[in-house]
């Protein structure tokens, strides 16, 4: 049994029994990365593949990595287990570039709070970052300055996005587990496409300090894992209040692993009809229906419910998220870090050239849209209206959670699509997020877990959403389902 | 609404992004498509609805007014594309 194929909790058991060491796990991961990453390309800045900055073979990079697991392996419950991070989570002294040319060469002067917490819990930060759409703008991982990642189940297809590298790394056993970020589905949709477990926690559950901001009222950091138990374990390490992120809530962090009881008798599950309407792939629908039957057989009580404002989620999102992005990305001006364009006549010229040259097409599209909806004369018609409709979307969830404990839906209306298929059609790409965006707008937690495969062998994910701060309900339902199936045990053939 | 090249050019100027002529044409067309889709929101009944300011019941968050260690100047300047001494170097601002 290759160690890299095991889950974190299986590895911890072996470490605790002194059967294996930290070094054994690293060796296994390194071998696996050398073997499959040239195909999958889950990691960036590997083997001279990166045009952004200084190169180095994967091995060299790893050995010079400032975060050696040995430092922390003796204490903390993570026992030195390596964790891979998306390229937008700051690691002191280790390149963090959001897969954008504008942050070329950026070495953060500090660690993100999640990184600090992982180290305190005894985790080791893997020395390579995972690929993503530039600034998390995308649903396919194709908008990366380093080029796309491929789906381990079919390398002609996208891994999903924006956290496509983290999802693919876990699915291809190139990582034990990983962190990503989710603003409109960027953890759940790639988890679904790659057949792994991905959780977007409640807004405010995990600190975003040191996460390079995209849309601050929506962004959350969350785990990619091979099963639900690992997801609960990783949440235990990263959740909690942080004075450096005033949106993080000061509420105690439960022991999430305690909610993995396997018992969901009497759990009230809502099936929102709006998520099963037009545009849903017939095969995906059949797989989700079968998952619903399975939950019913396990003792859950399923009822049809309605979230009537669902159709407005995508347009609201593309106003609110781009408005916030246009503001957050104003900091990339060629002065403090990253790339600087030709200086020209004056400061404004320098800003314009720097940003015109180094932002990719999708980043420009979103910044322009966001600037437009906030600009004089259009603010009321677009931004203000969107924030009002957002209130209605949030109220839909408040109402429905008076009747049920959680909701089940598809994660994506289709399985993974082909590379290049949606690149030229931004609107079609945006509609990939139709089932995941509402959870961000309403701030509720949501998970994607494997629930079947299409006849072409592509994974399909089931989404479970719950009330704010009810991650335990999600874990309970997801774990019970997972334990009665073996979808999560299937591995991609590479 | 209809979005002409002139408006996109103006917005790009506000956003401090230099666009090449071909880019401008393409982006205008794509943004128009997205705006047409977004116009769907005009159908929503928002009478008497307040805009969302925060998704959770969190109000102003205060902390004690205590001084904290900040990053050392040299560390802050480490990533600067151009610097001199303790300063960032930028093109001349005052004529």
What's this, in brief?
The complex is a heterodimer of chains A (494) and B (95). Among the domains of chain A are: 3-256, Alpha-Beta Complex (Amidase signature (AS) enzymes), CATH 3.90.1300.10; 311-388, no CATH class.
Describe the protein's architecture and organization:
- The complex is a heterodimer of chains A (494) and B (95).
- Chain A has 494 residues and is of the alpha/beta class.
- Among the domains of chain A are: 3-256, Alpha-Beta Complex (Amidase signature (AS) enzymes), CATH 3.90.1300; 311-388, no CATH class.
- Chain A contains 15 helices and ten strands.
- The longest helix of chain A is centred in the C-terminal third of the chain and has 21 residues, at 380-400.
- Chain A is globular.
- Chain B has a domain at 5-43: Histone, subunit A (Orthogonal Bundle), CATH 1.10.20.
- In chain B, 35% of the residues lie in helices and 4% in strands.
- Chain B contains three helices and two strands; from the N terminus they run H-H-H-E-E.
- Chain B has a two-stranded antiparallel sheet with strand order 1-2.
- Chain B is flat.
Helix content of chain A: 25-40%
* Biggest sheet layout of chain A: 10 strands, mixed
Tally of contiguous helical segments of chain A: 15
Total strands of chain A: the figure is 10
Q: Bin the strand percentage of chain A.
A: 5-15%
Going by CATH, the architecture of the domain at 5-43 in chain B would be Orthogonal Bundle
Helix content of chain B: 25-40%
Write the H/E string of chain A, N to C: HHHEHEHEHEEHEHEHHHHEHHEEH
- Find the structural class of chain A using helix and strand composition: alpha/beta
